[in-house]
Amino acid sequence: MSIFERLRLDNSELWGAYINHQFVLGIAHGTLPKKSFRKYLGQDYLFLIHFARAYALAAYKSDTIEDIKQAASGLSTIINLEMDMHIEYCKEWGISEETMQNLSEATETLAYTRFVLEKGLSGDLLDLHVALAPCLIGYAEIGKKFQDKITQNPYGSWIKMYASADYQSAAGDQLKQLETLSAGRGGEERFTNLSKTFNQATRLEINFWEMGLNAE
Known about the structure:
Largest sheet: none
Structural class: mainly alpha
Distance between the termini: 43 Å
Helix content: over 70%
Mean pLDDT: 93
Radius of gyration: 17 Å
Number of helices: 11
Number of domains: 1
CATH topology: Heme Oxygenase, Chain A
CATH architecture: Up-down Bundle
Strand content: under 5%
Number of strands: 0
């Protein structure tokens, strides 16, 4: 069993609540209130900026050229693929990049992004990647899970984005990196603390959905 499979199994109920959250189901069925989705889109822009910083931190925390390359690839995926797609997608919803740049960070955005960065600063590369895992891998799982809900759905292009071959490939790379880091830096004595990190990051993902769902 891979390290990610173990982490997900150890937090199976919470993981299910994350990938099947009411916000996600609203996207899948096209019933999510548009104000909720717009709130989420704006905050997700700010979220991605800090996740790009996290991958830059991963490069700094790396000991090998292979790990630096992996971190650089993740950073490139965020700033050259996911962020560009996000900006173009937001334009379809009438939200300009300038508008998003001037948004204040929601409490949920602050809590999640700073948690990930703190784990990377205080821990090692494995701690950081475990904190990152629920986002990149979780979105890929959601995209794949609901890829049959794309047609006649106002949120179909969002699902398509995370079900795309490029995004699925990026998630696959993250899974491989987790496995590599676990083999070199892991061990049973670390699993309990890694699972706590994974649990907290998943809870913060759920809170991010809640932030969008409760938009006023």
